[in-house]
Amino acid sequence: MRNKGWFFLFVFFYGISIGAVAQNKLKVKDLVPKYRVWLEEEVSYIISAKEKEIFLQLSTDKERDIFIDAFWKARDPNPVTPENEYKDEHYERLTYVNKFFGRGTPTPGWKTDKGRMYIILGEPQQIDKYENEAQLIPTEVWFYQGKVDMNLPGAFNLVFIQKDGFPDWELYSPVRDGPQVFLRFHNQDRVDYESIYRAIFRAQPALAKLAVTLIPEDRTTLYQPSIASDILISRIFEVPKKIHDEYADKLLRYKDVIEVEYTANYIGNEYLIQILQDKSGKFFVHYLIEPKRFSLELYEGTYHTTLEMSGQIKDDRNRSIYQFDKELPLRFNPDQFEQIKFRNFSYQDAFPLIEGEYTFHFLMKNRASKEFTSFEKHISVPDSDTLSLSSLLLASSKKESPYVQEIKAFKYGADQYYASPQRSFTQDDDLIILFDIYGLSPELKDGGRLRFTLEREGSDIWHEDVPLKNIKTTRQITKTLTLKDKSPANYRIRVAVLNRGGDELVRKQGFFYISHKRSLPRPFVNTEILAAADNPVYDYIIGGQYFNSGSLSQSRSFMERAYRRAPQNLRYALGFSQILLAARDYGQIISILTPHVTGEDVDHACFNLLGQSYQALEDYPHAIQSYKAYLDHFGTNLKVLNNIGECYLRSGDEEEALLAWKKSLELDPRQENIQTKVKDLEATK
C-alpha cells in the first residue's frame, strides 16, 4: 500500500472537510414543474420521508438529477445490468393507471385508490366485479398472492367500493367503513354485525367474509370486522418506503466533496472501531470497513481498482483535529480473483489520536466502479488516569503476528486478532474478549474484582469473578470462552469492575450472535503495516493534533521530539517551525530551516516561514531575500508580495515598496488596505 502522506491542518489543508449538511429546505410548491411532478406524482407512494426531506434540501437542479439517479439505483434489483427492472416496472404501472383508472372521474389515475394499490403491488392475480347487485353497492375485489417478500400475507384481497352518487372507487377498510357500507338500504344508526353479515351473505355470499376480513387465513370472529385487515392496508402503504435510504443522507453530506460521477453510487458497509493504548502509552484508533459491494475492472487479464480513503477527526467544537488521505491500488490475477470473488473485502488501518471526544468521518471511493461508502462515528479517547474500561473487542480467533514491533490494525502485543463487524460466531469458534482498564488505583487493584457475565435473550447464564490483583497488566486483558456448548442465539457479554464491597464502578458490554451454521464466510483483508510505536512520525502526528486542538505547549513537546530525533526530515522541521512561529520563537525557526533551503527538494513553506521570522526580527534584507526566493521557486503569492512591500517600507525603500504593492493590486485590485497604503505613499512624493 502507498501512503500519500500524513498532514496536519496548520501545514496543509488540501483534504476533505466532511460533516456540513445543508439546512435550507424548499417547499414542494417552490420546485420547478419537472421536480414537483416527480415528487408529488411519479414517486409519491414509494419515496420515504427521509428521502423526501433530503430532496427538498438540495439547492441545484444538477443535485436533484443526481439524487433521482441515486433514488432509482437504490431500488435496482440487479445493479450489475444496465436495466433497472424496478424503475421500468414502476413507470409501466404509472402509465397504466393514468390511462385506465381515472376514467369518468375528475381524479387522475395515479391519485385514485385503485391507482395507488396498482402502483405499489402491480397487477392482481384475479379481479372479481359485483356491480349489478340490487341490495349491494358496486364492489370490486382484487386478489393477490406471492407477496411474502414484501412482508405481506401469502394471500390477501383488496376491496374497492363505489358509494351511491360517487364515481370514485374507494379502498374498503373493515374497521373504518364497517360491513354495513355494502348494503344500499341500511339503518346506519343501528349496527348489528351478525344481521349485516347475513344480509350480505344472502345478496352475494362471496362478499360476506370479505366485508369482515381481507385475509383468507385470518381467524377472526365470525361477524366482527378484523383489525388485521387495517394493519394489512397500513403495511401495504409502507412497503415501498421500506428502503435502505442511507444513501440519501450520504449524498447530501458528500455532494460537495466527491466528484459528480460518484454521488449517485453510494453503497452500504459494515464497520468496526476499537481504541486501545499501545505499550508506548499512545492511543491508537483501529478500524475496519467492509463495503457491501466490491467491484473490480478486468483489463488485459488483470482484475484491478484503486481505492481512495479519506478520514477526518472533528472534536466536539467541530474543529478538525486530524485528517488523512490514502490510496490503495489493488491488482489480482485470475487465480487470485477466483479465491476472493465470493468473499467480502475488509480494509483495515490504524492511527494515533490524543485524548478527547470526537466524530470520526471516513470516506472510501472505488475508482473502478465510481462507487463510494462512508461512516460517521462518535469515538472517545479516554484520560488514562481516570477509572474506565475500553470498549470490548470480540474476536473469533487470534494468532501470533510476524510483525513484532510494527503497528497493525487489530494487532495488540504479539497477537493479531480477527473480529467481524457483524459480531457473528459459530459454535466451533472461541469468543475472545479483549479490553483495557485505565486509572486503576492501588487500593482497587488490591481488593477489586473483574466480573464477566454472559447473557442470552435477557437471562444471565454464566458469570465469573477474577481478582484484579491476579491480573498481570491492565492493558490488553483477554478472556476466552468456548462456544461449543452455547446454542445459536443472540448474546450479550458484560465486563464490570467491582470494588472490595462488590459495588459496580464501571461496565462495558458487547453483543454477538452464534449462528446455526457450521462455518461463516470470512473476508479477504487488506491492512497497512505501520511504523513501530516509537517512530517519530507518531510524535509528529500527535503534535499536529494538539496544535489543532489549541494545546500549544503539548504540541511543542511532541513536535520538538519528532524533530530532534530526525532533524533531517523536512516535514518534522516544518511542523516544529509552525509551532515555534505561534510561540514567536523566530530565532530557532531560522536555525532549523536554513539547512533545508538548499538543494532541489525545497518546500515553499521554508522560504515563507524564514521570511516571516526575519521580518518579525526586523532583519528586513534577509526577509526580502527569503520572500523573493519563495517567488522565484513557486510563483506569485499576494501575501508574500505584500510582506515584501512592508519590508521595503520598514527599511526606507518606498519606491520598491510601491512596486511590490502595485504588482499585488494588479493581481487583485480589491485589496482596500493595500490601495490605502499606495495612495498614502504616492501622496508623500
If you average the pLDDT, what whole number results?
Answer: 92
CATH topology of the domain at 256-531: Immunoglobulin-like
Radius of gyration: 35 Å
Number of strands: 28
Sheet having the most strands: 6 strands, antiparallel
Number of contiguous helices: 21
Shape: globular
CATH superfamily of the domain at 256-531, by name, is: Immunoglobulins
- End-to-end span in angstroms? 63 Å
Strand coverage percent: 25-35%
> What is the name of the CATH architecture of the domain at 256-531?
Sandwich
Q: Which stretches are poorly predicted, pLDDT < 50 over at least 5 residues?
A: 1-16
The assigned structural class equals alpha+beta
| CATH class descriptor name of the domain at 256-531 | Mainly Beta
Description:
By secondary structure, this protein is α+β, with helices and mostly antiparallel strands. Among the domains are: 124-239, no CATH class; 256-531, Immunoglobulins (Immunoglobulin-like, Sandwich), CATH 2.60.40. Helices cover 33% and strands 27% of the residues. The longest helix has 16 residues, at 85-100. The model is unreliable at 1-16 (pLDDT under 50).
Essential attributes:
single chain, 685 residues, alpha+beta, Immunoglobulin-like, six-stranded antiparallel beta sheet, globular, disordered N terminus
Please outline the helices and strands.
Elements: E1 6-7, H1 33-42, H2 49-55, H3 61-73, H4 85-100, H5 113-121, E2 126-130, E3 139-145, E4 155-161, E5 170-171, H6 193-203, H7 205-212, H8 227-238, H9 246-254, H10 260-263, E6 269-277, E7 283-291, E8 297-299, E9 302-315, E10 320-332, H11 334-340, E11 345-352, E12 356-366, E13 371-381, E14 388-389, E15 393-400, E16 406-408, E17 411-412, E18 415-419, E19 424-425, E20 430-435, E21 437-438, H12 442-447, E22 449-456, E23 459-467, E24 477-482, E25 489-498, E26 504-514, E27 524-527, E28 529-532, H13 536-548, H14 552-565, H15 570-582, H16 586-593, H17 604-616, H18 620-634, H19 638-650, H20 654-667, H21 672-683
Parallel strand pairs: 11-27, 19-26
Antiparallel strand pairs: 1-10, 2-3, 3-4, 4-5, 6-7, 7-11, 8-9, 9-10, 9-12, 12-13, 14-21, 15-18, 15-20, 16-28, 17-18, 20-24, 22-23, 22-25, 25-26
